[in-house]
User: Fold this.
Amino acid sequence: MKTKKRFIVIGISDSHEQFFPPQVREAIQSHTVFSGGLRHLEIVSSFLPEKAAWINITVPLDDVFAQYEPHSDIVVFASGDPLFFGFANTLMRRYPDAEITVFPYFNSLQMLAHRLLLPYHDMKVVSLTGRDWTLFDKALIEGEALIGVLTDRTKTPAVIAQRMLDYGYDNYTISVGEKLGNQTDEQVITCTLQEAVQRNFRFPNNLILQRNHVRKRPFGIPEKEFYLLNGRAKMITKMPVRLLSLSMLDLRNRNHLWDIGFCTGSVSIEAKLQFPHLKITAFEQRAEGAELMNANSRKFGTPGIRAIIGDFMETDLSTLESPDAIFIGGHGGKLVAMLERLQPLMTPGCVVVFNSVSDDSRRLFEEGIRHIGFRITDNIKIQINQYNSIDVLKAEQQ
Assistant:
């Protein structure tokens, strides 16, 4: 019978003068196998018993877990609070039946808030440590008043500040904590985003963003406010049609939207503004679409939309995350073939919305939908000013 594993996870600061309560000291002295990063070993080496064995935590973690296998009792040292984006979470996922005891220390964002004398009970916390931008972008778009950010060596304070400025989020000041917990070397710097872009901050670091004014977040963007393809207002999905289409896509309950034939990017941008949790992949055949999406995304503050230029029917889709919502704004007469190509890529429950501007395009959509085993579940006809009426069609799997 396999022995049940027991872990004691001890949170520490970066100080070389650690204070451990008696319970933690006793745990250290009564064990022989310890684990943590090399930096942790430097800090706690004087506390370890004479014949202590040390397992260094490095990637890939599978190698670390293989070294854990012969041992039933392991003491792990981790930075700050091990349950705050920390190694204790990893252990619980890897060893769901293990007995785990945690002795936490202040996490780094708590320490930074304390240095700033900043109440942080309403702070939105985002980790960019080895993660993508999705949750950070969501916090910006939603206009969170206080955002705490865990950084890494790639997503540095300067890189983060530049991204914010690129998309018009200059309504925050930034405070960066360098080497927090190290009494002789820590530093807290508060500055503008423009100043942060020019600085090289020492690692490890983290940051807190404090909003100084509310940035406008429109609901329903007039067509004239977008940068248009050759200035042609007819080449953009009109605001009422756009909002109706997004409503039919049920995006609050979706995760990944594909916008096919994005042109100016209006549907993707409106979707990202109203549903910032979404991952959006947008496709456009015309090369001009790349610059239009870039310019309009920056104007309206919607980072994170992935734009792919080229013929959709020839684009390699194998590496892309599957969609659970699809908007078709352009099809080049290949609507049936396009739906056939999309069908095996859709996640269960995927919804498709199409704007039909003619009887022919409607017939093509109906044919393609039947062919892939879907059915039209909603159809609303809408006319905007002098423009021809449009059928907004929603299709779901039968």
Notes: Residues 6-105 form a domain with the Cobalt-precorrin-4 Transmethylase; domain 1 fold (CATH 3.40.1010.10). The chain is about 30% helix and 25% strand.
